[in-house]
Amino acid sequence: MSNLSIQLLKALEPWRNARAWHVAFSGGLDSTVLLHLLAQLRQIHSLPPLSAIHVHHGLQAAADAWPAHCQALCDDLGVPLQVVRVHVQAGASLERAARDARYQAFVALTQAQEVLLTGQHRDDQAETFLFRLLRGAGVSGLAAMPHQRGLGEGDLCRPLLDVPRAHLEAYAQEHNLSWIEDPSNVRTDFSRNYLRHEIFPLLTRRWPQAAASMARSASHCAEAQGLLDELARQDLQEAGSVSEFDWLGLQSLELAPITSLSPARQRNALRHWLAALGLLPDTDHWAGWDALRDARADAQPVWKLAEGQLHRAGGRIWWMAGDWLRQPIAPMQWDNPLLPLALPGNGQLQLLGQAPGGSLQVRYRQGGEVMTVKNRGHRDLKRLLNEQGLPLFARGRLPLLYVNEQLLAVANLPGLDCSPCGRWQLQWLPTKSDQGLS
User: What is the mean pLDDT of the segment spanning 207-219?
Assistant: First the structure.
């Protein structure tokens, strides 16, 4: 076996027992060499079933001939090929939109215990590092492309990431491989192409090992980010106490353990926490965290992000997104209380036990409501909610059950959610706040 084959087999060792290997096959040099290497290796090694995926973006006329080229090579190698046509959304960055469309297709086609293999190499890693450096990225961004990560229900692996492009070219020439040269790759109005064709030749003439050095720096940053993530998990463990209002279904953290940290550790912990919800705020936007953290104790500060918000209430910070940012629709008649009632944009409501008689209606708080409480008589709802400590942001979404225009119960709040004699209980299952940042 060639050194390149040995290096590839070693990189793929953790996935030798996967259900399938899919090669992201553009038809270019990188993916052509990767597919050819794998097709040769499977002749002498027991490997998972191998297939190829070609994504047709439909962005240029030349691309219409590429599926046929890919099919011919796959036929020669005996590898099944799937061609997927995607629609690229118009936007400011055509490169990013095409990448997003491509990876959406890959996510849909990669099942559990399956691996998508891509052909990025060391020169690509160096370009990514420099591109992000010029955009002012932090340690996480400068870590560039990881060797592996999750992809939908499966995994993505870049087994050639430590291999220089020159080695791939030499392999292709040795085996008389032909590949597609994308005409758009010479357009220097694309940022990556500008770096590849204008900047890197200058750098490598002065520093021949520039690409290798940048890739090594990216590896150092990845290791540093791993330590930062480990520290963040430790700090978040201190703040991850259970709230009495966990039934709201919202992600939340106890504020005091976070604010006891240094400002840098606060941001590190919150970056790690918010990363699971989507894109992180940029450097200038972190002033919103300072304002939320330092607001008066009796204030209700909000940090507004792209598609979500952080609220501070009850000594905690709460992540809200999606339906939680929209006013639910009310009132609603509940004609059959034996069945759960779907609340538009607000989950569902159900009555446990023997339903009360009369005309049932569900409303939301408007202000000035009064209800009768066992052994306490008539009480203002506002005072009752204050006694319960329910966060203000949740009060306008809390379902109120009326019978013949009388406020009878408040969902989920002990002592207010059931009949005086215990014949029934009002239970609310809120909508999930699962929409992340954009």
Answer: 96
